Amino acid sequence: MLTEKEKAAQGLLYNANYDKELLDERAYCKALCYEYNQLHPAKTEERTALIRTLLGKTNGSFLIEQPFMCDYGYNIEIGRNFFANHNCIILDEAKVTFGDHVFIAPNCGFHTAGHPLDAERRNIGLEYAYPITVGSNVWIGSNTIVLPGVTIGDYAVIGAGSVVTKEIPPGVIAVGNPCRMIREITDEDKKKYVTHSSGFPVQIDALPVLQENNPR
To answer: How far is the CA of 8 from the CAs of 11, 36, 66, 95, 147, in angstroms?
Structure first.
């Protein structure tokens, strides 16, 4: 007989409502999230150490702004130079993997958990969990939701307010509900300009390069 945790890992329907192992693990995770979110923002070393304890894998420098919430923590893996802005929520009933140099704007959610469409099974507490994978050099705009089983390719940009229901290929701009590819990102995008605080246009590739210890 498979445990409920083993069923979840295999993408099968499982019940997380009454299983002591899963209940205890979620309670432990919630306690760590609470502790993290209560830390003073200036306590950077304590914050970093707690996140390393909470998450399944970290690599190099990262910054996760408070508040941050997840369900288990050990199912989350982040690459180098990872940055998540305020109110990031990761429902990591299955693996959630981020590559290197991922930027996540405020109020984004990554939800591996889903429920049966038929009310009978849903009402007895059954659910499923499918992994989410985000490649390297991805930027995800604010208020974006990524749903179970989604893969977002390297160098993709997801527009604000998107609901990502299906795979997004590498190197594209995608936006909407449901999220759809708008166009590919090309070398022409390197020539676009932004307005500096001085009021003068500044070429994007002339801006300071982000350092590993300052992922913002």
So the answer is: 5, 27, 28, 10, 16
Strand partners, 97: 77, 133
> Which pair of tokens denotes residue 6?
């083993």
Q: Which two tokens stand for residue 171?
A: 């190197």
Tens digit of each residue's pLDDT (9 = 90 or more) over 11-64: 999 999 999 999 999 999 999 999 999 999 999 999 999 999 999 999 999 999
Spatial separation of the C-alpha atoms in residues 135 and 128, rounded to whole Å: 23
Q: How far is CA 41 from CA 47, 211, 212, in A?
A: 8, 20, 19
166: left (phi over 0), alpha (psi -120 to 50) or beta: beta
Residue 41, judged by CB atoms within 10 A of its CB (0-12, 13-18, 19+), counts as exposed
Detail the DSSP E strand segments found in 99-169. 103-104, 109-111, 113-114, 126-129, 132-134, 139-140, 145-146, 151-152, 157-158, 163-164
115 included as an active-site residue: yes
pLDDT digits (tens, 9 = 90+) for 77-128: 999 999 999 999 999 999 999 999 999 999 999 999 999 999 999 999 999 9
Distance CA 207, CA 69 (A): 32
Per annotation, catalytic residue among 40, 101, 111, 115 = 115
Q: Dump pLDDT digits (tens) for 97-109.
A: 999 999 999 999 9
Q: Mean pLDDT score of the chain, rounded to an integer?
A: 91
**Distance between CA 90 and CA 145 in Å, rounded?**
10
